[in-house]
Amino acid sequence: MRFEGIHRVARSEASEQMEVVLRLKQKRILFCAIPNDSSDMRDPRLRAQRMKMGVLAGAPDLLIFDAPPPYLGIALEMKRANGTFKDLRENQEAVLDSLVERGWAKVVGFGAQDAFTKLRAIGLDV
Fold first, then answer.
1. How far apart are CA 2 and CA 92, in angstroms?
2. For 17, 43, 77, 87, which has the most beta carbons within 10 A of its beta carbon?
3. Residue 41: in which H helix or E strand, if any?
4. DSSP structure string for 59-108
């Protein structure tokens, strides 16, 4: 039986990130997730509260503290596996560039496997 026109559905960014989180935990790598849920930011009251609490628009999805030299840390922004660099918002690029200026590595992972490949390329054992 032949199936034409059927395409594999890309996993959500969240499911890709969960796969990365699981691997980081398995490898006992110190990291944290930044819960910048844009849906919270649509409500003006919640937005004001989040900003007072220190939420930074454009912060990367994961901050990895166990970074190989010469990096002070790794800022990992996750995108869907079928994404492109055009999917990065202007504020995300600005925060990533600011972290690079401070000695951090920046990684944009288009799906978990791409993130693992890029993390290994800078020396992180994932």
1. 42
2. 77
3. none
4. --SEEE-SPPTT-S-EEEEEE-TT--GGGS-HHHHHHHHHHHHTT-EEEE
The pTM score is 0.86
Pick out the chain residues at pLDDT < 70. Answer: 1-9, 37-41
Task: Return phi, psi of residue 17, to 5°.
Answer: -65, -40
Query: Alpha-carbon distance 121 to 38, whole Å?
Result: 30
Class at the top of the CATH hierarchy for domain 13-121: alpha beta
Residue 44 is predicted with a pLDDT of 86
Q: How far, in Å, CA of 13 to CA of 80, rounded? A: 5
3-state SS class at 10? coil
Q: In what order do the strands lie in the sheet with 105-110?
A: 31-33, 62-64, 74-79, 105-110
Tell how strand 74-79 and strand 62-64 pair up.
antiparallel
Query: Which pairing describes strands 31-33 and 74-79: parallel, antiparallel, or unpaired?
Result: unpaired
Structure tokens at 54: 């220190």
